Each structure stands twice: as C-alpha cells, then as structure tokens.
Amino acid sequence: MTEQKPIQWDLPDPFTLEILVVEEDTDELGHANNVVYVRWLEDISWAHVKSLGMTWELHEATGKAMAITRTEIDYLAAANPGDRLVMGTWLTGFDGRFRSARQFQLVRPADGKTLVRAVSTHACVDLKTQRPSRAPKEFADIMQAACVAGGKGL
Fold first, then answer.
1. The model scores a pTM over 0.85
2. Where are the alpha helices (DSSP H) in the chain?
3. pLDDT tens, 123-137?
4. Given 52, 57, 79, 121, which is the most exposed site by the fewest CB atoms within 10 A?
C-alpha cells in the first residue's frame, strides 16, 4: 500500500469526488485532455448541489437552474492514466438574487500535488426560456447556507 500525503485544501471542508484517470481521458500528448477537466468540474458540481438538496426534481419543480456563465481553469500539472485524484469544490459566492460562484481544486494524493485550480460563475435561468431569472427561495436558502468564506466569490 502506498502512503499518501495529506491534502492541503485551499479552503476548509470541501465536497469531494474521487477520480481515476483512464486511457479514454487522454489526448495525443498522453495526459488528461483539457475537455475532460471540464467534465470533471461539471460532475462534481452536480454531485455537490444534489447533496445539498438541489436535486433535478427541485429544478423541475421551480422551473429554474443555475447555468454556467464563466469557467476559468489553471492547469498546474498533468494528470496521467492510472492517476487517482480527488477533486474538491466549494460554493464561494451568492448574490442573493441571480449569481453564484464556485471554486475547485484537483489534487493527486500520491504526491500531494495540486493539478488544477478553477472557478466558475453561474446565473439562474428559467428552464423554459433559458433567460436570466431570479433564483427561487429554495435555491437561495441552500446556496446561502452552503457558501464558504475566503474563496474567490463574485
């Protein structure tokens, strides 16, 4: 069994998702392709909001969703096939009306190295019109309770 270094998270108590890099994640350079990182950000975002109670059923019931408006990714080191990674995420901002922010950190526990840092912003939209819309109270209550201080907010 290999010893893993403790993870030095950028913020406390992240919601985490374990990731195994597979061959299908790689590109011609032999490391995880940038598009795959975006998929991982999406996967953990949905898992996190579901864990907070923002299920798809709630989205359908309210007719609203939080749509990504911007994603910024800093690729710090490559992820390679066979790497076991841990992605952490936090809600780091909510304006109480329309917009929210999320922060991410991708770590390889085997060496404790942070491979990626990312932030995304989101806007509430109406599911039918795809137009901006005020976040329903259910979303606002969940996001306000889940926001952590000290991160990259709005």
1. yes
2. 34-52, 56-62, 137-146
3. 999 999 999 999 999
4. 57
